[in-house]
Amino acid sequence: MPKIPNSAVNGVITGWGRALPENVVTNADLAKTLDTSDEWIIERTGI
């Protein structure tokens, strides 16, 4: 892999944001819809 000069590795964060959807879907909602369990969802997604 070619070396990148230090001068080419500069960057800045110019802003940040967040969003909250109107409809929040819980693991329990997903478990009903997808015919699975809260434990299954947590195990695979960590959420």
Describe the protein.
There is one protein chain. The protein has a domain at 21-47. It has 2 helices and no strands. The longest helix has 8 residues, at 27-34. The chain has helices spanning 27-34, 38-45. The protein is mainly α.
How many helical elements? Answer: 2
- Based on secondary structure, the structural category is mainly alpha
Work out the strand percent.
under 5%
Average pLDDT: 86
Element pattern in H and E: HH
Number of strand elements: 0
Rg from Cα: 20 Å
Low-confidence stretches: none
Largest sheet: none
The helical percent reads 25-40%
CA-based shape: elongated
CA(first)-CA(last) distance: 36 Å
Write a brief caption for the model.
The protein is an all-alpha fold and 47 residues long.
Keywords:
47 residues; mainly alpha; single chain
